[in-house]
Amino acid sequence: MSEASAKTSPFGFRDVEASEKVALVHGVFRNVASSYDVMNDVMSGGIHRVWKDAACARLNPQPGEVILDVAGGTGDIARRLARLARAAKARRMARGYDARDADIRIIDYNEAMILAGREKSIKSSRDEREISWSVGDAMQLALPDDAADAYIISFGIRNVADVQAALDEARRVLKPGGRFFCLEFSHPTASAVAKIYETYSFKVIPFMGEWVARDRDSYQYLVESIKRFPDQETLKAMMQKAGFHRVSYTNFSGGICALHEGWA
Ligand SMILES: C[S@@+](CC[C@H](N)C(=O)[O-])C[C@H]1O[C@@H](n2cnc3c(N)ncnc32)[C@H](O)[C@@H]1O
């Protein structure tokens, strides 16, 4: 376990049995699924879009690649990756090369989030042929070793009961040289930013949750889980422990969010 004892896992400011955390986090995302995308925009003033764009550009999806969007929720990351992969495919074909579609697999253990994402896809009636959806656990993926070219987990790893187990599993399913990316809330590096952010997190976000999603508790969990999540250097060390090479991270918005990356 990354924090607390071997049998417990942090759920907000509490430590709970790892199996209880799985059930509690399930409950949180079942409750917020239908308002999840709207709340992301409201809470971050739309900045989460900039962070996600940057992460997907960095992953640089290529035609024919198998790319896992683990804890993919409503598909925000996968849709960005599909657009980039399709553009890369068109560029290749324009120069006379053969190119296959990318194979972008959303894996999330919460059916409600997947259903909300699929509903969004159906409503938009966009062609999302690169994307597939399935229910699965980041700590135990139903995939053979060396199955994927790239792996991304965006605002998901904080919710997993055993962060180290999820990192080990990511390393297992990536091909040698495969790219790993983790986009997650992190710890502001400047004390002025940290103070403003702390006030905003604890005094404003739970009220927004109540007001927009009619669910204060889930958003109280969100801010508490961010506060307890390992800082940039600790997560980097955990990735190295999982066997990733060339591990580095980029802070976004003064460290409110960070993108960690490494090679399998
Ligand atoms: C905050 S949402 C992030 C969704 C999406 N990746 C994004 O960036 O918008 C976190 C997601 O993690 C999923 N999740 C939590 N624990 C998980 C696990 N062990 N395995 C797979 N998904 C998990 C939740 O169901 C939820 O959909």
Provide a brief overview of the structure.
With 264 residues, the protein is of the alpha/beta class. Helices cover 48% and strands 22% of the residues. S-adenosylmethionine binds next to helix 1 and helix 4.
Overview of this protein structure:
Helix 2 packs antiparallel against helix 7 and helix 3 crosses helix 4. It contains nine helices and nine strands. The strands form two sheets. It has a seven-stranded mixed β-sheet, with helices on both faces. The chain has a two-stranded antiparallel ribbon with strand order 1-2. The radius of gyration is 18 Å and the shape is globular. The model has no long low-confidence stretch (mean pLDDT 93). The chain is an alpha/beta fold and 264 residues long. Helix content is 48%, strand content 22%. Strand 1 and strand 2 form a beta hairpin.
Q: Topology, pairings included?
A:
Layout (H helix, E strand, L loop, with lengths): L7 E4 L2 E4 H15 L3 H9 L2 H13 L6 E5 L5 H19 L8 E6 L2 H14 L6 E5 L12 E7 L8 H11 E12 L5 H23 L2 H13 L3 H10 L3 E8 L4 E7 L1
Parallel strand pairs: 3-4, 3-6, 4-5, 6-7
Antiparallel strand pairs: 1-2, 7-9, 8-9
Helix pairs in contact: 2-7, 3-4, 7-8
Bound molecules: S-adenosylmethionine (SAM).
The site of S-adenosylmethionine has 19 residues, from helix 1 and helix 4.
